[in-house]
Specification:
This protein has a domain at 61-216: Tetracycline Repressor, domain 2 (Orthogonal Bundle), CATH 1.10.357. The protein has 10 helices and no strands. It has helices at residues 10-33, 39-46, 50-57, 60-85, 88-95, 98-114, 116-139, 149-170, 181-201, 208-216. Helix 1 (10-33) packs across helix 3 (50-57), helix 4 (60-85) packs parallel to helix 7 and helix 8 (149-170) runs antiparallel to helix 9.
């Protein structure tokens, strides 16, 4: 018998709870071991049968897709909370809950370590979200407008992902044992202050390089690709 729309039966509520538990276990296991982790291992972590994973998600590929969507949603919500109001309180509170966000950061890094089509799609989704919440920040007067919003979003996303991958490579010991809190705290302590300084105060003291580049791009001088220099105009 179907439950009344808008009112979940006890069985439906258990179904939702078990699906969430499976997803959480999968995110943690993928963060620990990468995406070669088996459904059997994830089922054991979640305390369910492999058949229940198939019931909820269909396949390992579909389970990973569900994990991707949930992780992307968490990242999107955390960024938007800060840029919607300019209030640093929620963001600082997030930094204080490293144990909650650490597995998500490592999951993202594992996604790009694995590479392939899934990583490319994940990156595109991240960029889409960055475009959206930067636009919201522009509307609220918190973010400067850009000549190319998507190009800026791709750069910011690449810098963020690259920082995580670099720290994972340099400090693998922080990932051993499956407790990612130490890694996340090290990452935030390493990049947050210099990144905020760069974003808030800028780097160059003048815009000459930018202006020269923008003049150069549409009409590059002869010989720009290497070789003999162009003769000066007469």
């Amino acid at each position: 018998m179907r439950s009344t729309p808008g009112r979940l039966s006890a069985a439906d509520r258990r179904d939702l709870t078990s699906a969430a538990r499976i997803r959480e276990a999968a995110i943690l296991r993928f963060a620990r071991d990468g995406f070669d982790a088996s459904l059997r291992t994830i089922a054991a972590d979640a305390g369910v049968s492999g058949a229940l994973i198939v019931h909820h998600f269909g396949s390992k590929k579909d389970l990973r897709r569900a994990c991707d969507e949930w992780v992307l949603g968490q990242i999107r919500d955390s960024k938007r909370t800060t840029l919607a109001t300019g209030d640093s309180g929620p963001w600082l509170a997030q930094l204080g809950r490293a144990e909650q966000y650490a597995p998500l950061a490592v999951y993202v890094a594992r996604t790009f370590q694995a590479g392939g089509e899934s990583a490319a799609e994940f990156f595109d989704h991240l960029v889409d979200d960055v475009v959206d919440y930067l636009a919201e920040g522009e509307r609220n007067g918190l973010i400067r407008p850009s000549r190319d919003n998507r190009a800026r979003a791709r750069l910011l996303t690449g810098m963020s992902v690259g920082s995580m991958l670099l720290q994972m490579t340099l400090h693998p010991e922080l990932l051993r044992g499956g407790d990612f809190t130490g890694f996340f705290r090290h990452l935030t302590e390493t990049v947050t202050a210099p990144a905020l300084e760069l974003y808030s105060e800028g780097l160059l003291t003048s815009r000459k390089l930018l202006d020269d580049y923008l003049m150069y791009v549409p009409d590059p001088p002869a010989g720009a690709g290497g070789g003999e220099s162009a003769a000066p105009p007469s």
